[in-house]
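From the shared-data thread, chain only:
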Amino acid sequence: MATQEGKDLTNYRKSRPNKHEHLMNRAKVVAERSTCLRRKVGAIIVDKDGVVLSSGYSGAPRKMKHCLEIGDCLRTSLGIPSGERYELCRSVHAEQNAIINAARTGATIVGGEMHISSEKVKNAYSDGDGNDKVYGPCIICKKEIINAGLEMVYLKEDGVTERRYTLEQIKRLLIQEEAKWRKNLRRNKIIP
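Structure, as tokens:
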């Protein structure tokens, strides 16, 4: 065993995270920059070798006041549950920002992977416990991930088992979500 000042370097090296854990940790660090009052979300996009091409977090559009600065979330004030009425959200989602930032810098992300860290802010939801389930990118981000040509999405959401989605699975989830919305709209007689 190699030692340095009495420390067991072999045991120290065993604590090294694998590549996937490292990338998820980086997404979590990016999430710390999030300015959303409901969730801390960070996303990184990597190429097939694991090289980071882009990152993004949930926050207001560039040079606009963030919810943290305003001190209010419109969706929370209106009692809008998680997963609904995204057009009323001031934030650009982390997944969207990672894709946009790649475009701004000219990074080619087709065939890449996205790693997402999502953490609910305590007491941020109307029910007070933050148990609203998300389980994956929102319907808007799913469409953008598909069009960006990302091949795999990894999501670590607190309170939920880590998940991974292939591009085909993201497409199927989008179709299922659209079907659910159509069913609800028909039930409420909004569409025939």
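The chain is about 35% helix and 20% strand.
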